[in-house]
Amino acid sequence: MTKQNPFRYFKTSPEVIRLAVMMYVRFPLSLRNVEDLLHERGIDICHETVRYWWNRFGPMFSGEIRKKRIRPSQNYSNWKWHIDEVFVKINGETHYLWRTVDHEGEVLEAFVSKRRDRKAAMVFLKKIMKRYGKPRIIVTDRLRSYRAAMKTIGNAEVQEIGRWLNNRCENSHLPFRRREQAMLKFRHLRGLQKFVSIHSSVHNHFNHQRRLTNRETFKLQRNAALVEWQQLSAA
Questions:
Q1: Which residues pair with 89 in a beta bridge?
Q2: CB 111 within 8 A of CB 192
Q3: Tally of CA atoms within 13 A in the half-sphere of 34 that contains its CB
């Protein structure tokens, strides 16, 4: 059975759609910023078109990226996870964004909840363990919900708590915070959950740990990531 072309009913070329989605999700740009940048390149579209594109194709692109990064065992590790949560305002109401990164800084999972109690922590832990399995070490802060949830699940012995041990996850919140500021906050919980899932996959795809490699290696990795992005959802 041949794969259907997801762009078959669109007059705009797939290359332009991929470029618009990448610019909006990857960089701290507003919808109108993306519209103006594409206009400079001779592409005349409305900012609402950019909104429709990322809503339509963003989950598709992130799903393909996630499949390619999960299946090969060398692309992720269960050695150590860092888990942390941040406050997010949605229409003036406080919500909590739970995020997990591995020891290399890759974002494994993002989950939004209205509370940060034991029940929410357990739902998040079960969700990530169902996808990646059980890690050897889980580094958290001093939030009691983690300890209570891990005791219920039965892996409390792998938890590590320390003041400076969870800095990797705390630093990984910065790209999301910059993106949140550019979007002028979020209006719906489902919209936030959808965006953070897409943003995490795109961030992982283009994050090459530049400080750990030389210039030539970085350029090769950057070109490879761009080529792979341009081939997403290809018919």
A1: 94
A2: no
A3: 28
Judge whether 112 and 96 are in contact, CB under 8 Å.
Answer: yes
Q: pLDDT, tens digit, for every residue of 83-107?
A: 999 999 998 899 999 999 988 888 9
Sheet holding 159-161, edge to edge: 107-113, 93-102, 80-90, 137-140, 159-161
**Roughly what angle, to the nearest 10 degrees, separates helices 31-40 and 47-70?**
100
How many angstroms separate the CA atoms of 135 and 151, rounded?
Answer: 15
Which 8-state DSSP code applies to residue 69?
H
Q: State the residue for tokens 């705009």.
A: 12
Instruction: Name beta bridge partners: 95.
Output: 88
196: β partners = none
- Number of neighbours of residue 112 by Cβ within 10 angstroms: 23
pLDDT in tens, 44-55: 999 999 999 999
